[in-house]
Design a protein that fits this description.
Number of helices: 2
Number of strands: 9
Radius of gyration: 15 Å
Structural class: alpha/beta
Helix content: 10-25%
Strand order of the largest sheet: 1-2-3-4-5-7-6
Distance between the termini: 31 Å
Shape: globular
Mean pLDDT: 83
Largest sheet: 7 strands, mixed
Order of helices and strands: EEEHEHEEEEE
Length: 145
């Protein structure tokens, strides 16, 4: 199953795999003329609605711009990340956020959410989700070159 917020715009959408729900969020930066990302209000409203709709399922969010910076490159931070964090704080079903942008490999768990950052090509990461039906799935990742 895959469905988008707006049929004319597939920049943020949902798909399911087994019993996991994946949300793909667009950190469009048309308003921010730098290397920063920005999750606009319509994306955050959609994210909040999808997390509510799927409150009984484990959710993985896929996006380009991380909310928790994986390194100290302030020029790459996400603009107004605190607004996104407020949405996450309302929900307990987000198990991981997978992002890139910083060009580093990094993993850390914050408030029960695994934040996974991955480097660009030629590297890639394989993420295995074990016990995905439980409240606390396990994430194993392998970096390949």
């Amino acid at each position: 199953m895959c469905y988008s917020y707006n049929s004319d715009n597939l920049s943020f959408y949902v798909f399911t795999k087994k019993k996991l729900v994946f949300l793909v969020a667009d950190g469009s930066k048309d308003l921010i003329p730098m290397s920063m990302g920005y999750y606009k209000d319509d994306v955050l409203e959609w994210l909040d609605a999808q997390l509510t709709l799927n409150s009984d399922k484990n959710v993985i969010i896929l996006q380009h711009y991380p909310i928790i910076p994986p390194s100290k490159r302030e020029s790459h931070y996400t603009y107004k990340a605190e607004e996104y964090l407020k949405v996450l704080a309302k929900h307990k079903n987000v198990k991981a956020i997978v992002a890139g942008h910083f060009g580093v490999n990094h993993e850390q768990k914050i408030n029960g959410i695994m934040h996974i950052a991955t480097k660009e090509a030629p590297c890639y990461r394989i993420i295995d989700i074990i016990d995905y039906e439980t409240e606390n799935p396990t994430f194993w990742s392998t970096i390949k070159e």
